[in-house]
Amino acid sequence: MRSDITLKQIAAASGLSVSTVSRVLREQPGTSAAARRAVEVALGTLGVRHEDEARTSGTVIAVVHAAPIAGDVDPFESLHLEIVERIFALGWVAVCVQTGPDLASAAEVLESFGVAGAVVLGGGSAGPEAERLAALGVPVIRVSNAGHAGFAQLVLDSREGIRLAVRHLIHLGHRRIGLVVPEDSAASTRVGAFRRAMAEVLHIPATRDQAPVVVAGPGILAGSQAADELLEAQCSAAISCAPSITFGFLESTRRLRLSVPQDLSLLTVGDMPDAELVHPPMSQVTFDWAALAEAALRELERLMRADSRGQQTGGGSSGSTGESRGRSPQLPDYKVSPDLVLRASERALDRR
């Protein structure tokens, strides 16, 4: 099997877009039979083993993440793409599975593939699947916005991201800044970091009135409603912590005949697919997804080697509870700091 295959090469060979190829490989609903067949043929042409061969040979890596709720945007899409590309580059086989209330258990689906390891992205429904995979003896590494005890993990430092966003907007002269966070396991951490940063830099108590916060549900409509709340609170700048929230802000300002950044500076924290292509190009506090994917797979490979040595010395078995295999006693727990990428969605506040 060739080890230099990328999503762009598969797209070129299949005649499909990169995004369509990604959806097919991730087994997302809504892909056509023709697209799935085109990707299968392209993989064969490029020398990549198809699924039946992957069940019996090669190193199979599971990439597991929660399916976005209807109307939402996958906050781990960029990282997912980078991980899949790197799996191909390492000469491994990627099996991508989405989890959700109406979907089959990832562990049940993956058990027949004989997966050597798993990368679990985010929380929500992906969390219980990480538990099930570890119980089956599969080495697991998690990447998410919040820590999860008992797993090797890379934690995206949401607190530092919020602090970086607050300091930048205050540097531009904004004092009335609002925050919108998705209703997830990292919400309280983000809100606490926001209020502390506002208090430390502006020397204010940062009460709810002075530092408005909205916790939004899934979907662009919820983001738009959150934007309406912060605009009504007369915020001159806002920090969005999810792609759907950011798109909701853009929708709300257009509906109210306002402009970003002329009437509202907007900064998004975390991933936002094609942030440079929206209007206006979105400034971000984001992560180096390529480096993060490399680090996650490097650590997973280390766990897999430790697991293999444990099996050779009788230290683990597929019927274990996961303590000796999926959960090594030496579990790394890294915090990853973000970077500020400036584009055109924020500007200095006019002083009058």
Q: Any key phrases for this structure?
A:
352 residues; 12 strands; HTH_LacI; alpha/beta; six-stranded mixed beta sheet
Strand and helix map with partners:
Elements: H1 7-14, H2 18-25, H3 33-45, H4 51-54, E1 60-66, H5 77-89, E2 93-99, H6 106-111, E3 117-121, H7 126-135, E4 140-144, E5 152-156, H8 158-171, E6 177-182, H9 187-202, E7 213-216, H10 220-232, E8 237-240, H11 243-255, E9 265-269, E10 283-286, H12 289-312, E11 333-336, E12 339-341
Parallel strand pairs: 1-2, 1-3, 3-4, 4-5, 5-11, 6-7, 6-8, 8-9, 9-10
Antiparallel strand pairs: 10-12
Helix pairs in contact: 1-2, 1-3, 5-12, 8-9, 10-11
Describe the structure.
- Residues 305-352 are annotated as: Disordered.
- Keywords: DNA-binding, Transcription, Transcription regulation.
- It comes from Brevibacterium otitidis.
- There is one protein chain.
- α1 (7-14) crosses α3 (33-45), α5 crosses α12 (289-312) and α10 packs across α11 (243-255).
- It is globular and about 65 Å long.
- Helices cover 40% and strands 17% of the residues.
- The model is unreliable at 50-57 and 315-329 (pLDDT under 50).
- It has helices at residues 7-14, 18-25, 33-45, 51-54, 77-89, 106-111, 126-135, 158-171, 187-202, 220-232, 243-255, 289-312; strands at 60-66, 93-99, 117-121, 140-144, 152-156, 177-182, 213-216, 237-240, 265-269, 283-286, 333-336, 339-341.
- β1 (60-66), α5 (77-89) and β2 (93-99) form a beta-alpha-beta unit.
- The chain contains twelve helices and twelve strands.
- It is of the alpha/beta class.
- It has a six-stranded parallel β-sheet, with helices on both faces.
